[in-house]
Amino acid sequence: MARHSKWHNIKHRKMAEDARKGKIFTKHAKLIAIAARGGADPGSNPLLYAAVEIARAENVPNDNIERAIKKGSGEDKNAAVYEEITYDGFAPGGVALLIQTITDNKNRALGNIRVIMNKKGGRLAEAGAVSWMFKKVGQIFLALDEQQQKRLEDLVLEIIDLGALDVEADGEILKVTTSPEDYGKIRNELIKKGLIIDSSLLTYEATNKVALPENDPRREALEILLEALESDDDVSEVFTNLAA
Question: 3-class SS at 189?
Fold first, then answer.
């Protein structure tokens, strides 16, 4: 019985991880398709170049990337047309939500989000109601070896000289924050320096944060709401201003 339980749990975790990867791959394919409207050549389309680089950093297969470019550039005549739409909202405890969608049907996306918010204790807000509380940034996480850790101070100064907005060290990981415009350039320069990128992404950081105690039941309600939103196929990411 224990053996059955063990393998059931492993299978469940693998299914959850596969689903997570599938959603990540789908998200990047949609972003690449959107960027490819400006041209199928990453060399002459900076937005596409950045979208492809970010996808590769998330281990999106090349076949997926190529198909997405064909869909966005018009080579695939039957491809859906995607657009990015961001919705503002509030969760239990007054936590601000920035709900990012990539959809080929904005009416469906909005309808599904409205239903989820109503059922799980959240509420949609007018456009701009919470977006001012967030700023878009690039984040690059570097895995440092022993030698790099020993020269950490010099390394931080070198990265700041590249134009990074901030650099934070946490053990073997170095978090580099950039402007969205400099994200691709700085990422490439870090690779040229021989630094190992653990992960990287364009994201939103909250500038006005809300604190909730660990034992506050509204925290659990927030987690339930976030899980429901993130499980929707049209939702690509949900950002909050909850303080860590």
Answer: helix
What are 186's two structure tokens? 């700085």
Instruction: Give whole-number Cα distances, 151 to 139, 163, 164, 166, in Å.
Output: 21, 19, 18, 17
* Mean per-residue pLDDT, 226-236: 93
CA dist 92 and 75 (Å) reads 45
Per-residue pLDDT tens digits for 108-135? 999 999 999 999 999 999 999 999 999 9
Confidence label for 6 from pLDDT (cuts 50, 70 and 90): very low
Tell me the residue length of the chain.
244
Are 139 and 203 contacting, i.e. CB atoms less than 8 angstroms apart?
Answer: yes
DSSP assignment of 79-104 equals PPPPEEEEEEEEEGGGEEEEEEEEES
Enter the DSSP assignment of 195. P
Nearest to 135 by CA among 200, 201, 86, 207: 207
Give the pLDDT score at 214: 87
Pick the closest to residue 238 from 206, 212, 215 (CA basis): 206
187 Rama class: left (phi>0) / alpha (psi -120 to 50) / beta: alpha
Ramachandran quadrant class, 238 (left: phi over 0; alpha: psi -120 to 50; beta: rest) = beta
Query: Model-level pTM?
Result: 0.74
Q: Spell out a b/e string for 14-33, using b for 16 or more CB atoms within 10 Å of the CB, else e.
A: eeeeeeeeebebbbbbbbbb
Query: 19 — phi, psi (to 5°)?
Result: -65, -40
- List the domains of the chain with CATH numbers: 2-73 (1.10.10.200), 83-128+210-240 (3.30.70.980), 134-206 (3.30.70.980)
